[in-house]
Amino acid sequence: MAEMRESNKLVVKVDVDVSDALKGLKALRREANKTVKALEKVLELKEAVDEQNGEQCPECGGNIATTTFYRDGEAYLELCECDKCGRLSK
Fold first, then answer.
1. Confidence class for position 81, pLDDT limits 50, 70, 90
2. How far apart are CA 45 and CA 63, in angstroms?
3. What is the mean pLDDT of residues 54-79?
4. Which residue has better confidence, 51 or 57?
5. What dihedral do alpha carbons 30, 32, 36, 39 form, nearest 10°?
6. Which residues contact 42 (CB under 8 A, 6 or more apart)?
7. What is the CA radius of gyration of the chain?
């Protein structure tokens, strides 16, 4: 007697429209690229300021920012502060 074999195959065809999702991802990528460019510009400016300032903290190596206080149009106090450790000096 010949054996009959049953096949349990199931074939499914799926058609999905992902065009809206792709548009959203492309928009997200554009915004991410703009953000990266803006961050690069900020880092460039920070480097320029660091080079201009040039002073480094003797304790931690951070950048020293100098603030000059004026009274009656004349400088009377110059205060230096580290941007990393907060060390103050005159």
1. confident
2. 14
3. 84
4. 57
5. 120
6. none
7. 32
- The answer to whether 82 and 57 are in contact (CB under 8 A) is yes
Q: 60 and 84 in contact (C-beta within 8 Å)? A: yes
Backbone φ/ψ region at 81: left (φ over 0), alpha (ψ -120 to 50), beta: beta
DSSP 13-66: ------HHHHHHHHHHHHHHHHHHHHHHHHHHHHHHHHHHH--B-TTT-PBEEE
- The whole-number pLDDT of residue 23 equals 94
